[in-house]
TrEMBL record:
Protein name: GNAT family N-acetyltransferase
InterPro entries, per the entry: Acyl_CoA_acyltransferase, GNAT_dom, GNPNAT1-like
Keyword Transferase listed: yes
An example Gene Ontology molecular-function term: acyltransferase activity
Domain N-acetyltransferase: 7-161
Top EC class, one word: transferase
Amino acid sequence: MTAPQRYRIAVAAEPELEGCYAVRREVFVTEQGVPEDVEMDAYDAHAVHLLATSEPDGRPAGTARILHGAVARRKYPTAVADGLTAVLGRLAVGRSARGTGLGAALVRAVEDEARRLGLTQVYLEAQTHALGFYERLGYRAYGPEFDEGSGIPHQAMRRTL
């Protein structure tokens, strides 16, 4: 998968996971003040992680994770009860890569991977300041605003693939 400009997006292999976590720490823990024990959870071990790296140096620039199947149903029982829904989460783009289109490319890469896994829709819980970003990519908000544990307001969204 190729992202705009100078980024490569791929499913992260075990040795690349630290790059995913480094971007998440930069964005969520350092910039947004989310406690690290909230940001890094037990679901990471069961997720498909996507990593965007800058080319040609290979530095981590962005990440997202996908939960699906029994793991997704356990964490989001009402949102993904059908078993055919991917949960897009932990989407983060490092400061130096913002404004390049990398965030949208990561969302599209999540959708491509979900299709490859045989899933038919994507569910996410967006920070409310990012609703417009996801709406431009075809996602629709529903339900009330909520705090998912980070102290940051969120909104449930979904898109059929």
